[in-house]
Amino acid sequence: MHESARVRVDLVYFNAGGGHRASAQALQQSIADSGRDWDGRLLNLSDVLDPNGKLRRRAFSPESYYNARLAHGLTLGMHAELRVLQALIQLLQPSLMRTLQQYWKRDECPQGSAEPSRGPDLVVSLIPNFNRALCLSLAAAHPGVPYVTVLTDLADHPPHFWMEPGLPQHVVCGTEHAVAQALAAGIAPARVHATSGMIIRPDFYRLAEGFDQAASRAAHGLDPKRPTGVVMFGGHGARAMLSIAERLADQQLILLCGHNQRLAERLRALPARAPRLVLGFTQQVADVLRMADYFIGKPGPGSLSEALHLGLPVVVTRNAWTMPQERYNTQWVRERGFGLVLPSFRQVADGVERLLADLPAYRERVAALRNRAVFELPPLLERILRESRDSAQAGADGPLALSSAARGVRAG
């Protein structure tokens, strides 16, 4: 089929934290694997708002600043900073609207095509804070094109974080709590859709028939019979991993440091009384997690969802340093018995002992969780697009049926 006849789906992300980009990439892959004649395009909002990188070079990169704070554990006070950021976005709203409208209206000539594209048929946001500007600018540039926000957090952190009541915005929620938040905020039920969890990459669903945990542990210098924890703090690691490794010198650990090579070197230099594997960035996160029995890390929605999907109970913390949008995640873990929520990683040794003492019960509760969100989204998006087109063809904004996912999919 000619390029211009394909359904164009723009997937909006940015690089703050890495989880938004990972979710966008996972959804792009799921769309491609679904067999639909769709063109899922990744759209980095930073590249749209600062196309030549002048602001980032002359001032600073908010994404780099945010990621550096995560890596150093400097998350205290982020609630206040979030409100400052939101006030700044509101102040810059007219400028944002002009820039985004120009982007949506701009004809592009895709590589290998002789004809310009006609603009997006569907826009999916996987980021918070900017949805009002994105949604309104799209509506002004391309009236009738559906705008969908997929929460990559287990809950909203209102106001003006993920959900923007009063807009032609669909919201996709991965928990019953987020669905309740959307309805309480006044978003029309027909625009609230539930999935069974957070988006994680399709390769996490690959059948592990050929995976031999004992052999894989042995191949990496670990004791196949010894309980094994995996420590992970996102794509840039965190200094907290040093304290955890020191306090768990008697536990067999896999420590994932992402792009933080200096952290990896410091961890390798620490004395340990049990086998230990320190890894830098890897594309094989799923297989690394399959080697473990439990997870230790921050309560990020992506890492929690990946660990739980592969059957690993979790050990996380909740305190003044917990980011505001991740606080509900700890409540969710505690209420469902998926692991332990500690006040600090100073108690991690005792926490791991308690977890291991009751590991079968924890693993049984975790095994009951069924997250198929990444596969539920393409048919949900297709239905939203179809109903939007049917409504436009009828010449009226007919009521949308409440999402079958919202009615029938059990959200965690």
Secondary-structure map:
Layout: E1 7-13, H1 19-33, E2 38-44, H2 45-49, H3 54-58, H4 62-72, H5 78-91, H6 93-105, E3 122-125, H7 131-141, E4 147-150, E5 169-173, H8 176-184, E6 192-194, H9 213-219, E7 228-232, H10 240-247, E8 252-256, H11 261-269, E9 276-279, H12 285-290, E10 294-297, H13 301-309, E11 314-317, H14 327-336, E12 339-342, H15 348-357, H16 359-367, H17 373-394, H18 404-408
Parallel strand pairs: 1-2, 1-3, 3-4, 4-5, 5-6, 7-8, 7-10, 8-9, 10-11, 11-12
Helix pairs in contact: 1-17, 6-7
Helix content: 40-55%
The total of helices stands at: 18
Helix/sheet category: alpha/beta
- Distance between the amino and carboxyl termini: 39 Å
Helix and strand pattern:
EHEHHHHHEHEEHEHEHEHEHEHEHEHHHH
Largest sheet: 6 strands, parallel
Short précis:
This protein is of the alpha/beta class and 412 residues long.
Main traits of this protein?
412 residues; alpha/beta; six-stranded parallel beta sheet; 12 strands; 43% helix; 14% strand
Model description:
The protein contains 18 helices and 12 strands. With about 400 residues, it is of the alpha/beta class. The protein has a 6-stranded parallel β-sheet, with helices on both faces. The chain has a 6-stranded parallel β-sheet with strand order 9-8-7-10-11-12, with helices on both faces. Helix 1 packs across helix 17 (about 375-395) and helix 6 (about 95-105) packs across helix 7.
